[in-house]
């Protein structure tokens, strides 16, 4: 066998192993999903990062983006929120980056004035600019 053929054979044999980390990352995300909004699975760290960013803006009296986040969440849908409001909404991005402005996407964390998470909601599947509650992980 020539060297190029040997290298090609080795790469072909290793291709399942080389793809393994990406496969494991997807599997890990799916197995540790805390909330699913539409088809997006969020880890607790994703939710915590969005909550912290939104609460920091709230504490500092700052708002970002065209829709001025965080802003008060009016709960016109009548969710069964177990902690008292007022509540504030802030984007949680399906890119898993923290929102600092621009397009907010469909998903939001909702929190109280003391920074307590109330719920995670999405516009995905809702009508008339309403929200639906995201689903928690199944045991």
Give an overview of the whole structure:
The structure is a single chain. This protein is α+β, with helices and mostly antiparallel strands and 139 residues long. The chain has 2 domains: 1-31, no CATH class; 33-136, Nuclear Transport Factor 2, Chain: A. The chain has 2 helices and 8 strands. It has helices spanning 3-31, 44-59, and strands spanning 35-37, 40-42, 71-73, 87-91, 107-112, 117-122, 132-133, 135-136. Strands 3-4-5-6-7 form a 5-stranded antiparallel beta sheet, with helices on one face. A hairpin with a 2-residue loop joins strand 1 (35-37) and strand 2. It is globular, with a radius of gyration of 20 Å. 26% of the residues are buried.
What is the percent of helical residues?
25-40%
User: What is the name of the CATH topology of the largest domain?
Assistant: Nuclear Transport Factor 2, Chain: A
Please tell me how large the radius of gyration is. 20 Å
**So what's the overall shape?**
globular
Question: Uncertain segments of ≥5 residues (pLDDT<50)?
Answer: 6-24
> Overall pLDDT, averaged?
84
Class computed from helices, strands and strand pairing? alpha+beta
- Major sheet: size, sense and barrel closure? 5 strands, antiparallel
As laid out across the biggest beta sheet, the strand order is 3-4-5-6-7
Number of discrete domains: 2
**Full CATH superfamily name of the largest domain:** Microbial ribonucleases
Q: What count of helical segments does DSSP give?
A: 2
**Secondary-structure element order, as H and E?**
HEEHEEEEEE
Protein name: ribonuclease T1
Signal peptide: 1-19
GO molecular function: hydrolase activity; ribonuclease T1 activity; RNA binding
EC number: 4.6.1.24
């Amino acid at each position: 066998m020539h060297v190029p053929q040997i290298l090609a054979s080795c790469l072909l044999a290793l291709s399942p192993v080389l793809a393994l980390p990406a496969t494991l990352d997807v599997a890990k995300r799916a197995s540790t999903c805390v909330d699913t909004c539409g088809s997006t699975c969020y880890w607790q760290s994703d939710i915590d990062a969005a909550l912290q960013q939104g609460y920091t803006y709230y504490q500092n009296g700052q708002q970002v983006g065209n829709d001025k986040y965080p802003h008060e969440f009016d709960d016109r849908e009548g969710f069964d929120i177990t902690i008292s409001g007022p509540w504030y909404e802030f984007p949680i991005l399906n890119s898993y980056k923290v929102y600092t402005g621009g397009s907010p996407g469909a998903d939001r964390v909702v929190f109280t004035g003391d920074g307590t998470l109330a719920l995670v909601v999405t516009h995905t599947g809702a009508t008339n600019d309403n929200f639906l509650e995201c689903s928690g992980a199944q045991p």
